[in-house]
Write a structure and sequence with these properties.
The protein is α/β, with parallel strands linked by helices. The chain has one domain: Dihydrofolate Reductase, subunit A, CATH 3.40.430. The protein has 4 helices and 10 strands. The strands form 2 sheets. An 8-stranded mixed sheet has the order 5-4-3-6-1-7-10-9, with helices on both faces. Helix 2 links the parallel strand 3 and strand 4.
């Protein structure tokens, strides 16, 4: 199964200057819980935004840079090669960035979205979702609190 996972603002902003523009500790915990022991597919810039590879996940990095290497990670130059590396009985999580989300949308079975209830200035955006092709199957609202500056909702969509 191919699962796209992202935290997006109301205006579908993902980030600015290769960083998230909000900090939601519970969303990080959810991301870790969902992706641990699975394949994660990302662009090079997303990978380079991490201080080190994420533990207990198989990293597949997509880049146009020839001879790019990252210790302990697989590197390919296109999405189809990345998807082909994932065994049929495994989940692959598409974790960004914006260009990779756009490329992966036609192949995605499930979208795990954290909707941050605010608008942000950004330079990277999540692709617009054709909601007629998706069914909302779960949602869970979280109000802002001492650890979270913004209200947010977890939304799970399955392709119709």
């Amino acid at each position: 199964m191919i699962i796209m996972i992202a935290a997006v603002a109301e205006n579908f902003a993902l980030g600015k200057n290769n960083e998230l523009v909000w900090h939601l500790p519970d969303d990080f915990k959810r991301f870790k819980q969902l992706t641990t022991n699975h394949y994660i597919i990302m662009g090079r810039k997303t990978f380079e935004s991490f201080p080190k590879p994420l533990p207990n996940r198989i990293h597949i990095i997509i880049t146009r840079q020839k001879d790019y290497t990252a210790e302990g990670c697989f590197v390919v130059d296109n999405l189809l090669d990345a998807l082909a590396m994932v065994p049929n009985d495994e989940n692959a999580f598409i974790i960004g960035g914006g260009e990779i989300y756009n490329l992966a949308m036609p192949y995605t079975d499930v979208i795990e979205l954290t909707k941050v209830h605010a608008n942000f200035e950004a330079d990277t955006f999540f692709p617009k979702i054709d909601f007629s092709a998706w069914q909302l199957v779960a949602e869970e609202y979280h109000p802002k609190d001492e650890k979270h500056l913004f209200d947010f909702t977890y939304e799970t969509y399955r392709r119709v």
